[in-house]
Amino acid sequence: MRVLGIETSCDETGVAIYGDDGLLAHTLYSQVALHAEYGGVVPELASRDHVRKLAPLVHQTLAEAGLQASDLDGVAYTAGPGLAGALLVGAGFGRALAWSLGVPALGVHHMEGHLLAPMLESEPPAFPFVALLVSGGHTQLVEVSGVGRYQLLGASVDDAAGEAFDKTAKLLELGYPGGPALAALAEQGDPERFRFPRPMTDRPGLDFSFSGLKTFALTTLQKESAGLAGDELKRLKADIARAFEDAVVDTLAIKCRRAVEDTGVGTLVLAGGVSANKRLRARIDGLMAEHGGVARYPRPAFCTDNGAMIAYAGWQRLRAGQHETLAFDIRPRWAMETLAAV
Ligand code: KG4
Ligand code: ZN
Fold this sequence. Notes:
This protein is α/β, with parallel strands linked by helices.
């Protein structure tokens, strides 16, 4: 079975084809340049750009796979969570294409896509595993016993980890998208100069809170930056970036250790945009090595939003016979625990 996957939930247009022998082709168009001047994603601009880019990307992906549209056996598109207008572009296109080809269509949960993305790698994780999902909109620890068998262990009570990276980057004037820029600046920072709190690690449980860290970064910047300019100001920002990154990585690692100990599971999967962060990966690798377990994550290009993860999740479900009826639905808010098991 060959499945076309379409991702349009936010600011990347992603298309891929996944078949029984693996990933056949994938293409991505990032809208970063479009939103950069506004300092964040402008939903209406995102929708219009998906409209412009989706059909050409589908043609390109089919060409790269050496296939015709008539070779497709199903179409999967992100149905949520995400920006409503942006989701409707992928959903409308995907449904129409599937209908015209006479093949089934399926709306995929974006976070399930992220969660299953490590399955696209040469050493996929085996079930059961614990997944730390860290994206711009979500921070979740999930116990995974199979496709669609998800138990939420903990989540952020306020900002997601990626959102905290983006907001802190914004106040350090690093532009959009902030996460990678903040991580790059942190490399030049002094890890000893500031120590930021590790929120909610002093109490039991697996929930997170990241909104206080950005406030901590702001007050540190305000207190320390008086009279600074040029290189000195840049050094201060680098030191703050490093302290912030260390605090987020440490907090995530503390909760991951707890989740692995509580569940007794030996594999930890890291996925979502923040899983591209090198320090987080190194920390989780070390943690799992200490536990005699393994850490698995997607290649960097599949940590952030992409079509391949949607094609893969869709392939899993479509080949199990799941598909939509002719009525169609998108879900800007959608709890992953409500998904049917495969
Ligand atoms: O999964 P994703 O592409 O989109 C959502 O589903 O939200 O995640 C995007 C998030 C953004 O907040 C971005 O700043 C963050 O992932 N991100 C990073 C890094 N690369 C992307 N955060 C920290 N370090 C990185 N290297
Ligand atoms: Zn995402």
